[in-house]
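Subject: mismatched residue count in predicted assembly?

I count 688 residues in my input, but I want to confirm that the predicted structure covers every chain. Input:
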Amino acid sequence: MKLGQATIKDIARELNVSSSTVSRALKDYPGISFETKKKVKDLAEKLNYRPNAIALSLRKSKSFTIGVIIPEVVHFFFSTVISGIEEVAFKNGYNVILCQTNEKLEREINCVETMLSNQIDGLLVSYSKETTDFSHFINLIDMEIPVVFFDRIPNIKNAVNVTVNDFSGGYQATKHLIDQGYRRIAHLAGPSNLAISKKRKEGYLAALSDSGISIDENLIVECPSANEKESFEICLRLFKDPINRPDAIFAHHDIVAAGAMMAIKSLGLRIPEDIGVVGFSNWQFASMIDPPLTSVLQPGIQIGEKATKILLEMIQNKDINHQEISNVVLDTELLIRKSSVKNY
Amino acid sequence: MKLGQATIKDIARELNVSSSTVSRALKDYPGISFETKKKVKDLAEKLNYRPNAIALSLRKSKSFTIGVIIPEVVHFFFSTVISGIEEVAFKNGYNVILCQTNEKLEREINCVETMLSNQIDGLLVSYSKETTDFSHFINLIDMEIPVVFFDRIPNIKNAVNVTVNDFSGGYQATKHLIDQGYRRIAHLAGPSNLAISKKRKEGYLAALSDSGISIDENLIVECPSANEKESFEICLRLFKDPINRPDAIFAHHDIVAAGAMMAIKSLGLRIPEDIGVVGFSNWQFASMIDPPLTSVLQPGIQIGEKATKILLEMIQNKDINHQEISNVVLDTELLIRKSSVKNY
DNA sequence: TTGTACGCGTTATCAA
DNA sequence: TTGATAACGCGTACAA
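Triage response: the counts match. Full output below for your records.
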C-alpha cells in the first residue's frame, strides 16, 4: 500500500477511466453518467480520498491561506485577536499561518519573506515596536497583495487599518478619573513610535483640557518596554515626592497598570483611596486582581474578526473600494471597577 | 495570480536560456558557467525572484508545514506553547498552521481534515475536552504522519507525548500546603476525561497519604468547565459549613484558583491566614493578584519547543525509534508566593 | 556547460 | 458521456 493519500490518478487507474472523468465525477459536473459517478464516489470514499490542497493552490494560483504577523502570541490582547482571525478564516475555508516577530524588525522582514514564498492570499499585520520603515509592507501592497493592519497601524497610503478608538478610550479613562475627583492624573504612556500610544495620550490630554485641568508634563512618562517591571520602577520614582505626587494613574495598558499598582502598594498607599488607577485592554487578569482594575475594553476578538472579514473581501473582490474601508475604528468601552472608585 | 511574482520561467525567457539552467544557477549547482550564474542571479535579484513554496511542496511531496491543533488560543498556557512551537518551527524553516477547536470534538475532526488536505508534514495536538474517541488521530498515525500530543495526552499505542509531570506538580503543591500547616486541603479537580486532571489529583492524594492525612471525599470537587465563575460557586457551597470547611485549596489551575480566591474574600475570609490557596500553570496574572498566588510552573514554551523538536525529528528521520521518545515528561516547579504562606 | 522531458495533483479546454 | 492534453512552478535524470 502506497504511503500517503490516494489521488485522483489512483482512482482513475483502478476504475479504468481517465483522471478528468474522476475529477468531474467528484465535483458533480454535468455530463457524467450516474453509474460512473457512483463508482467514482464509492471508491473515493473507500480510499479515503482527499483533494490535495497544494496541487489546487498551484493550479488555481491561490493558496486559500492568510498570513498573520504579530509581535508575540503570549500577549492577551493578541491572543484574542488571533482567536477572532482563526474563527472567521476557518469558517470561510481559509488557513491561517502564523509568524511572530518578537518585536524585532529583522524577524518581521523575514516573516514577510516567508509569507511571500508561501503565496499567501492576504496578510494581517500588527507591526513590531522597532518598525519605523514600512517598505517591506509597502512592497506587498504594491504587488497588490491585500494587507490589513490592525491595532498598530502605520501611516501608509492605501493601507487598510482596523483599530479601536484609542483616542476615545484614553478620553473615557481620563474623564472617568476626573469625575471621581482625581486631579493630578499621571499618564504612563506607551512606546512613542506606535500610533496607539499617541492616540491614547491625546485622549488623555483632551479630557484634561476639556475639564480645565492644566497639563503637567512631569506627570507624563513614557514606558518604552511597557512591562510591569519598568512601570514599577517608574512609579517608585514618580511617587517619591509626597508633595507633587499624582493622585491617579492612567496606564497605557493593564500590565503597566499592574506594575503601577504594585509600586503603589509597596509604598503603603491605598488604591483607590490614595491613588486611582485605570488601565487599557481589559486583560484577563484585570477583574481578578485586588482591587479589580478599571480598564478600557479593547475588543480583540472583534478586531480579529473584522480585520479578517475585510481581508477576505479584498481577496475575493479585487475591485473593492479601498477608500471606504481604509480606516475601521471599533468602539472601546470603559469597564469601571474598584481601582478607580473611592466609594465602590 | 499576484502581479509581479517572477518565476524561473520569466528569468529563463528574458535571458534566452532554459529554465533548468536558471534553476541550477540559482542553487549553485556544479557545471554552470560563472557567467551564466551571474547573469541569472542578477536578474533574479532585480525581479525580486522568490521560489514558490507551493510548487516546491508539490514537487517534493513535502510541505514544510506543521499543523497545530489546540482547544483555544486565548488561554495563557496554550499561547505560551504556541510561542515555543512557532519559535522552533520558524528557525527550522517550517511554517505553522493553526486551528483551534473551541473544545468541540466536531471542530477537531474538521481541523484534522483541513490539516490532511494541506499535506502537513506533521501535527502537534492538544485535544478537546469533549474528545474520548481518538480515531481521527489514530488514522493519522496509521498513515504514518508524525503526530505529537502535548499537555493533554491520550492513551494510544505508538503515540508520542510531551507533558509536564502533573503528578509531581500536584504532589509538590499539596505537600507544600501540608508543610505550611494546612490539614483540610480541598482539591478543585479538572475535567475528568483529561489525563492531566487525573494526574494532578493523584499527586494530591499521594501527598496526603504520605503525610498520613486521611482523605475526605467531600473535599474533592470536579470543575468540568474549569472557569472562574464555576469555581466561585463551587467554593461558596464548599465553605458554607463553618465546621467542616477546608483550610486550604489546591486548584486544577490558576483560573480556578482565582475563582476560589474571590469566593473566599467574598465570605470575609483571609488568604492565607484562614485559607491557603495554590494554583497550577503559573498564569501571567498569578504574581499580580492579591495576594500573589502560589502556583505550579508549567513551562509552556519549553513544552512547545520540545514537542516541535521531536516532531521535526520524526519528520526528518522516519526510522526514529518511537519507544525512546514516546513519553517526554518535563519537570514542574512550585513557585511559592503569599497565598499559601501565613508568615510570608 | 546547457537543454529536453517528465512528474508532483489538479482542472480547464478541446476533441472525440 | 468520456478522454487526451496542457498548464500551474519547480527540480532532476538523461541527453546533447
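Chain B has three domains: 8-51, 62-163+300-329, 166-299+333-340. Marking this ticket as 'not a bug'.
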